[in-house]
Amino acid sequence: MSRFFATGSDSESEESSSADEITPKATGTTFNKNKEAFTTNLILCCPLRFRFEELTNIIKTIRNAMKIRDMSKCLEEFEQLYRAFLKSKTIVDKEGVPQFYIRLLADLEDYLNQLWEDKEGKKKMNKNNAKALSTLRQKIRKYNKDFETEIASYKEVLNSSTNVISLCRCQDEESESDDDEDSEDWGSDSVDSGGESEDNEGAAASLAVVFLKKYKDGRRKRHKKIEQVEEEVDEDGEAEEGGWEKVKGGVPLVKEKPKMFAKGTEINSAVVIKKLTEILQARGKKGTDRAAQIELLHALSGISNENNLGQGILVKIKFNIIASLYDYNTNLAAFMKPEMWKKCLECIDELLDILFENNNIFIGENIAEDSENLAISDQPFRVRGCILTLVERMDEEFTKIMQNTDPHSQEYVDNLKDEGRVCGIIDRLLQYLESKGSTEEVCRIYLRRIMHTYYKFDYKAHRQLLPWVTGPFSEQDQEESEGEDSAIIMDRLCKFIYAKDRTDRIRTCAILCHIYHHALHSRWYQARDLMLMSHLQDNIQHADPPVQILYNRTMVQLGICAFRQGMIKDAHNALLDIQSSGRAKELLGQGLLMRNMQERNAEQEKIEKRRQVPFHMHINLELLECVYLVSAMLLEIPYMAAHEFDARRRMISKQFHHQLRVGERQPLLGPPESMREHVVAASKAMKMGDWRTCHSFIINEKMNSKVWDLFPETQCVREMLVRKIQEESLRTYLFTYSSVYDSISMETLSEMFELELPTVHSIISKMIINEELMASLDQPTQTVVMHRTEPTSLQNMALQLAEKLGGLVENNERVFDLKQGVYGGYFNRGTRTRP
């Protein structure tokens, strides 16, 4: 095997190359006799060195990428390594596979398997890294099958490294007593041997003495290799017998309690403030340990309490502790660790306790640092800082934690329990600012409280309004009823913002949240009137993306509310823009569409992910689509029956027509499975006037579990749907079969569709008034007399054909006249002037 491939480090290859340079000089006779052979060896060394450097450079890049978990870079460099290895195939076949190449393949496979088993780490990867990890793992497993023997032998050597370490230790202990004498003897021998090699040029074997008889250096290298193997084998830094301690940079990794002040220093306000300034000066600098800074600030807070230096200094330190906790993560997209999050909540609670207990503390951003009063002798205390900004940042951190947690795990539920504590902190700050804050600050904290209330359904208030709940409440229910209703809270907070706020954004968000809350609790008319009076739909396109997402959520909730109230046309109009776009998931801030991943770069993707709504605030997309399709069915099917032969009829819902076409193209029609198939099957039944079949497709066990049971008033929604299906099926039946009847009894229609006679009378009267049905009502006999003014099917087809032929003739004449330079065609021929 070539010496270039037999070694894995650049230092050993340089020693080998230095030996090559000395060999021809030391054996001059051999060089003269074998000049051609030596020249051949030099020629062979060039491609070997070139291939060696190319492979080692790529391997170095791969190992660097492994350290930072850059899987995309690992995949890219592995493909380059594969191509570079193929180029050196001829040399590998002659010399053998390099050991460093086998070592990389084994280490890379183990590394990828470790990452693959780390489920939490995989979830934190971005999409590109996760995809690269899967691809690279498959490739390396397939590629390593060609080197199974070499990799197995390498792992055996690695596993036996512990025995090698113990053997080397025994040899070192035996040679310690003679270390000094041997070093002197070996040093003289090396010099003598070097002189002999220069005198005897033909003795090429004497060169080995120069490089072999360095036992002292050899022992150092051996010690270095022992330490390297120990670090790889024993990750905890302790051998089984020795109990060694892992060190970093020559310093033991032992956490010592930081010494704040020198021994004997008198602790007073000036000393503590000076120490606080020193700690804050290191904030943000490169190399600063953020965790150590937080510990120093906590220690300084304890010292301040022990020496009773006053609440002013304590508030100042608490402000900086909370700010340091927020600065712990430099990346804006990263969320706080659980231990840091708990510390943050505790510090904010402690800070609020101090502010409530001491009325002589004034805080604000407008207080300059030079004018601060922190000493216990200077009262009232004046501290620079903004508690509102800290609480707003805490709320944002809570949102990021919920965004980055798996919504289907128990961890998400545990994190969601912290929302009660977050709302409690907001309520406490709200009370504090109502007495000491400005109007702008009160509006800001009111909006934070609104954002935690608007999307929650008030089951307590809803249960009290139910007509069948008339019995006495339990003790728990009585305690809950004593609390303020969410509608009253929202009304009070929002009206204050409407009157006092000077910024459009806070007012806009408050209006949208208020509308959403009204719609969620089925207050349709209040929600509709507030939306129309605000005129937000006129200029919402100029708002920032989070406000647009809130507007989309509000419109969707408004449409669902209209559907529950039986306002089918209003529900369809409210949901039309969201559903017709095909991007409901993205417009509602509930995820990113895969088809748009190519249209955004990595930075834009991170920004859009930060705008996503937490999972517990999501709107059910299947329920939304079902409400839209059912509304479209109740509007579209009667319209299609009334304008069956109208060539110029318009489509009310393109998405609904698309679902109908998809259902018609299916070669085999089986029982419906999905929600869409149920709606399509119900539409076909309604088109024939069969309301019972339509009802069975819309309301059944499968649809109840998927959609209708998700509504708070499930039974009312089902009854409303049955009634709407009966009424629209009656209208569709009359449109479809009016040409067949001369007259039809309203009692018969009432029995067919199971509707009350006044309801049937009302529906038919509206159709006649709107000129949708050409008929008249005979009151004595309670019959509908049809008027033969509608053309028959054959006549409708003939009219359509005549209209199309007329358009075709007109188009042909227009093209012909354009060529002749005269416009008017056949109809203007008599007015043409002859040349």
From TrEMBL:
By its UniProt entry, which Pfam families does this protein fall under?
Answer: eIF-3c_N, EIF3CL_C, PCI
Q: Where is the PCI domain?
A: 615-791
- Which UniProt keywords are given for this protein, alphabetically ordered? Cytoplasm, Initiation factor, Phosphoprotein, Protein biosynthesis
* Primary residence: cytoplasm
For the keyword Phosphoprotein, the answer is yes
**Looking at the record, which segments are called Disordered?**
1-27, 171-202, 223-244
- Mark out the compositionally biased spans (Acidic residues): 173-187, 229-242
Write out the annotated subcellular location: Cytoplasm
The record lists the membrane-crossing segments as: none
Q: Which HAMAP family does the UniProt entry name for this protein? A: eIF3c
The function of this protein is: Component of the eukaryotic translation initiation factor 3 (eIF-3) complex, which is involved in protein synthesis of a specialized repertoire of mRNAs and, together with other initiation factors, stimulates binding of mRNA and methionyl-tRNAi to the 40S ribosome. The eIF-3 complex specifically targets and initiates translation of a subset of mRNAs involved in cell proliferation. Component of the eukaryotic translation initiation factor 3 (eIF-3) complex, which is required for several steps in the initiation of protein synthesis. The eIF-3 complex associates with the 40S ribosome and facilitates the recruitment of eIF-1, eIF-1A, eIF-2:GTP:methionyl-tRNAi and eIF-5 to form the 43S pre-initiation complex (43S PIC). The eIF-3 complex stimulates mRNA recruitment to the 43S PIC and scanning of the mRNA for AUG recognition.
Quaternary structure note: Component of the eukaryotic translation initiation factor 3 (eIF-3) complex, which is composed of 13 subunits: EIF3A, EIF3B, EIF3C, EIF3D, EIF3E, EIF3F, EIF3G, EIF3H, EIF3I, EIF3J, EIF3K, EIF3L and EIF3M.
Hey, which family's this protein in? Belongs to the eIF-3 subunit C family.
Q: What is this protein called?
A: Eukaryotic translation initiation factor 3 subunit C
